Amino acid sequence: MLLSRDEATIIAQCTPKGSGALALLRLSGINTLDIAGKMSTLASGKKLIDVPTHTIQYGSVVDQKGTAIDQVLFLVMHGPKTFTGQDTVEISCHNNPFIIEAITAAALKSGARLAQEGEFTKRAVLNKKMDLIQAEAINDLIHANNQQTLKQSLAQLNGTLSAWIHQIEKQLIKAIALSEASFEFIDEEDMAFGTQIEKILAGIMDDIEKIKESFDQQNQIRNGIRIALIGSVNAGKSSLFNALLGKDRAIVTEQPGTTRDVIESGLYRNGTYLTMVDTAGLRQTEDKIEKEGIKRSEQEAQKADIILLIIDGSRENSKEEQAIYHELHTTHRHKTIVIKNKADIAKDVDIVPDAISASYKQPKSIETINQAIERMINRLFTTIASPLLLNQRQFNLLLQLEQKLIEIFPLLKGTIQYELLSYHLSDAVAHIAELTGKTISEESMNAVFREFCVGK
Q1: What does the pLDDT read at residue 325?
Q2: What's the pLDDT score for residue 253?
Q3: In this structure, are residues 309 and 352 in contact, taking their beta carbons and an 8 Å threshold?
């Protein structure tokens, strides 16, 4: 029997590659039990195809000659009560790359093929085990860089965003029903269908606007918090950068302008992934390389979620430096922490109010900076008004839906042509269907799952 590509049995390693105690390989497809049976012997003496569903069986994976490759556990699950909706066998084996390669080869020789990126989850969507939004939440869940994103991704896997979109779809269908009902009551002057439809669409527009307001911030936080150290040359940025990381990452010398490019380093702290960025010192220069470094520093200030504005407290700062500091502080006040550095040799320098006195030589001042960073991160998280976490695809489709609704509003003025209105409302519902994957093209579907790892 010739099987479609989405029915054929696929195999992939579901656990990360590398050394460890155990690995998990998953087979899924219409012929899974037959294929897995060809490459297995069970300690019970039974055939894999004859054991009850949702049971764990101890045995061995064998090659075509019957030679044991590894002692394993087989988790046998008959469809449709599986992740993909198809028959599935998961093999828990020892995590040795030679063993994994040999088991995969045995599966391929028995009739399976290698899975593509996200193909298991794609099949779950095709078999209506979840919608596309829930599938994308799985990918977000795997790659979450902080507790906030983790919680929101888990909630969306359980259907929070899907439920929100379903409510919008229901409201649009109600608007279509009202529009089509007008065909029967076209001569009734007191039937205010237009007013009711306009009220429904206005409510949807309000909901979309609330989501839009927090999207940029959500998008930044889902990727971790980016913290840029900005300041003039020789202000001690690199020394503070190393102290905040707890390791020497940037080169530190007495010579001004040592850092000529952006240096990044990441760390997890209190459940959040932070990317610390050391930037080139800000000053006027004719050196082409240094000018490019300064340009990148200014770009980092724009991109950063938090700016540590480092001021050299050991000397009087020039008017040029003061102007730069004031401009940065004014432009990015909402995300800036001002630090008067070199507190161990500081002079009475007062450029920006409420600065934290600090020195990389004073552990207590480093802790004060970390506490200020933590407070700003908490403020970032608490200012996200929406409980929903959109990715770029979902956001773009919502923008298209919003634009479609904007185009519909003029149709509700004056004499309403309800037949034309119904057509445009139906088009708006089509945008919703693409969000959840009901009507998405195969090309767009594949683009979504290319972002997944192979074993998912």
Answers
A1: 76
A2: 39
A3: yes
